[in-house]
């Protein structure tokens, strides 16, 4: 791919109600994942691994956490003299006062249009972040160029039982074209169809067409999400459908977020995601090695650096800079960066957000279907507080 | 250059006493403590001390060192008012090539130093493990109105035979220098850290290389020459943790000390961070058969065996049924299944085949070299 051939838009304006309280402090794309990553790292890495240099990230709110993570883009080599990383903040209209909203009408897509015009790219790929994958976008471009439809959408074949009504799927024709991208409950498919085409929320189309789509939406005074616009475009024109066959995790609620983290503890998944020829990049931090003290029992788990581990950890994902004290047992849990867990605690099926302080001597238990979530920075010292939170 | 002090790190040493570990790499590039290289300590000390311009003089096998330092961004040296420059040996019109000694290395890089116009020159070696605030030493140098200040550390009298020893008067002025004395008169060993007034050193070097070329080495030649000319030379006593890791045993020992919780080096100190070139790697993966006790482990390690009082560096994998005891495994080494490694240093990218036994003792540490393969049947 020539440098300026393709530009990319990462859309962070995604449904997040089901992921509360984890998304109270960040967009979906900034959710920590797999021991040291954020969801957005997977899209960004796919983009830079395809040699794309022009990237815009549309952010729901101020984008503080996004800017803190991405900085100049240097961790993804996006701080070069060509192209670069651009942020478009405040795309979530729920936060915009009514009188401000009036001034936005006819201008809602201005940032994207300006970015696309300046990129001078031939094609644009649009990705949302609630699907973890490691996709070869060069292959997607080749596929698109070999076919006739103006847009290509990406899907993964999954079992019907693995989908929930909120998932979007493709309405596929016999010759692998998509006539619609729609929620599962609106799909016209025989209930006997076991394998369905789950949308990966990745679209590729010519930049000129995308600019026209956005300008036309501006003229109508439309203020809907980019993904909704693209869904309309697919219905209008029919899309080429590109099948992604690699590891994918689908993140739309707490249970699926938890299950996705647990799924990378499977060695096959772990290797597919992190040890393919396409590497996953993230913000680099200078942490010290993780220290496991005398006689710890830590198995079947992922750990980031900077940790200090005295207790037992089984089948869990432990991020950077976490302390787990003596006689504490952690099982089937996700422990995010900076969390401190005191002595004598029992944790099972728990998601602990960043910088929480737990214990000592607390029992935190959820179920795989309903993991117990501890909020960012929450401090729990007594058992009654745990019960009250649930 | 905006600062008045320029740092020069002498990183040209071959480190012959590290044997197979430095066969194809320079001593300052030798890995330490799981995710560092020895030179990281000196570079981070510069960054933390506000010394923003650093020249690194390389000579022996500089490839890895060059790749490691890069633009210096990992230490914050890629700023507008400073930077790190890797200085390679080059052939002058007089046909000089390689450095003969520490002072000669500085002389050969006079053009670079002059370009920076420093008032003070901080000369450092790239092969010690320590944390030191050079700005305090500069303040001391200025207060003493010294021409040269030498960093010294107290050592046991029986160890003094290994070091250059500084004999001082009551004001810490150095009155005598003895290289590896049989009967030491003081316990102040040179750390190989010097602050010079650049103008003075420059004139000494220019004079020497215009005539007899006698000033090859700081310890052997320059300090005695300063003393003979009654320049004011002071000792600056450093009291923190400091280790010379120039031998297999001392490198192993320092790694084992690094493993001790709450050791004096205090690597986790947020206010004096040790930076290193950060590779973006996946988190460490512990399988259902891993057993860790007193283990220090970093990103991209894969552990299916037992790690007892040992350090694993980045990208190390340890197969099922293997035991690693009292050892340090350098980046990228692959350890097969049912291997026993005890009291050993395993070099970068080494491959240890299944069922191999690599057993050393406290007195005789076992070593597998840089890129060496052990116990793998060649097909």
Summarize it.
By secondary structure, chain A is of the alpha/beta class. Chain A has 10 helices and 29 strands.
Number of continuous helical runs of chain B: 8
Which stretches of chain A are low in confidence, meaning pLDDT under 50 for 5 or more residues running?
Answer: none
Distance between the termini of chain B: 57 Å
Q: Can you give the mean pLDDT of chain A?
A: 91
Please characterize this protein's 3D structure.
- The complex is a heterodimer of chains A (about 400) and B (about 375).
- Chain A is built from ten helices and 29 strands.
- In chain A, the strands form six sheets. In chain A, strands 5-4-1-6-11-8-12-10-9 form a nine-stranded mixed beta sheet, sandwiched between helices. Chain A has a six-stranded parallel beta sheet with strand order 14-17-20-23-26-29.
- Chain A is an alpha/beta fold and about 400 residues long.
- Chain A has two domains: about 5-275, Spore Coat Polysaccharide Biosynthesis Protein SpsA, Chain A (Alpha-Beta Complex), CATH 3.90.550.10; about 290-390, UDP N-Acetylglucosamine Acyltransferase, domain 1, CATH 2.160.10.
- Chain A has helices spanning about 40-50, 65-70, 100-105, 110-120, 135-145, 205-220, 225-235, 255-265, 265-275, 385-390, and strands at about 5-10, 30-35, 35-40, 55-60, 85-90, 125-130, 130-135, 150-160, 170, 175-185, 195-205, 240-245, 250, 290, 295-300, 300-305, 310, 310-315, 315-320, 325, 330, 335, 340, 345-350, 350, 355-360, 365, 370-375, 380.
- In chain A, helix 4 runs antiparallel to helix 6.
- Chain A is globular, with a radius of gyration of 22 Å.
- Chain B has helices spanning about 40-50, 65-70, 100-110, 110-115, 135-145, 200-210, 220-230, 250-260; strands at about 5-10, 30, 35, 55, 85, 120-125, 130, 150-155, 165-170, 175-180, 190-195, 235, 240-245, 285, 290-295, 300-305, 305-310, 315-320, 325, 330, 335, 340, 345, 350, 355-360, 365-370, 375.
- In chain B, the strands form six sheets. In chain B, strands 15, 17, 19, 20, 22, 23, 25 and 26 form an eight-stranded parallel beta sheet that branches.
- In chain B, strand 9 and strand 10 form a beta hairpin.
- Chain B is elongated and about 65 Å long.
- Strand 14 (about 290) of chain A pairs antiparallel with strand 15 of chain B.
